[in-house]
Specification:
alpha/beta; Spore Coat Polysaccharide Biosynthesis Protein SpsA, Chain A; seven-stranded mixed beta sheet; two-stranded antiparallel sheet; 9 helices; 11 strands; 21% strand
Length: 247
């Protein structure tokens, strides 16, 4: 069985929905639901990396370890990299990055990422994708698309509909990228210390840095897709409705 650590980056000051890790969902903060999913995955330990004392307290109450990180990080990856260095984690320890606004992240998918990386010692990073077939989603720039090689390693990520169906044949299997990642601790720190490339800055997609470096990024189909992520007021309303339905 793969041993791995889940680190959840969670900041209070999100621009579109401030305080979202602390929003109430079915009687407890969103971040505690994320912790629950991480604990259910069988992770060796679950750590919340934050810059806010309210989130730190909620994380501890939810059964996670909490570590205070700087407030000026540009991404969750950088926040996790700081946590890895502060905790002095072993170079080959597998880290799964589960975002603090994903209360319905399947535990099976979290473990899939850890197992996939463990099985591929020459791979720098793992992520996941799922199929999609409706034109509106395919053309939505907020939905990130991925194209892969014959072994399910990523070739490119884009907000544009890739590959472009020039002849309108409609027979290409489009894939939607899911924002969950696994890395080894040493690669995470190395990645964070690498400047953003022009592709990443243009598409606003951090994972393009891995491909630009020439590193291998494995991207299998997710064994189970996540539920609602919390980015907007509409998202939290939809998540609350879903949780009510589940209950």
């Amino acid at each position: 069985m793969t041993a791995f650590t889940v680190i959840i980056p969670a900041r209070y000051g999100a621009s579109r929905l401030p305080g979202k890790p602390m929003l109430d969902l079915a009687g407890k903060p969103v971040v505690q639901h994320v912790i629950d999913r991480a604990l259910e995955s069988g992770a060796t330990r679950v750590i919340v990396a934050t810059d806010d004392l309210r989130i730190q307290e909620a994380a501890i109450d939810g059964g996670a370890q909490a570590i205070m990180t700087r407030a000026d990080h540009q991404s969750g990856t950088d926040r996790i990299a700081e946590a890895v260095q502060m905790l002095k984690l072993a170079d080959n320890e597998i880290i799964v990055n589960v975002q603090g606004d994903e209360p319905d992240m399947p535990p099976e998918l979290i473990r899939q990422m850890a197992d996939a990386l463990a099985a591929r010692p020459d791979t720098s990073m793992c992520t996941a994708c799922t199929s999609m077939n409706d034109a509106q989603t395919i053309n939505d720039p907020n939905v990130v698309k991925v194209v892969r090689d014959e072994n399910d390693f990523a070739l490119y990520f884009s907000r544009a509909p890739i590959a472009f169906d020039r002849d309108g044949l409609g027979n290409f299997a489009y894939r939607r990228h899911l924002g969950i990642y696994a890395y080894r601790a040493h690669y995470l720190v190395e990645f964070s210390n690498t400047p953003a490339c022009a592709l990443e800055q243009t598409e606003k997609l951090e994972q393009l840095r891995t491909l630009y470096r020439g590193d291998k990024l494995y991207c299998p189909d997710a064994i189970k897709s996540p539920g609602v992520g919390i980015d907007t007021e509409a998202d939290i309303k939809r998540a609350r409705a879903n949780w009510t339905t589940k209950a």
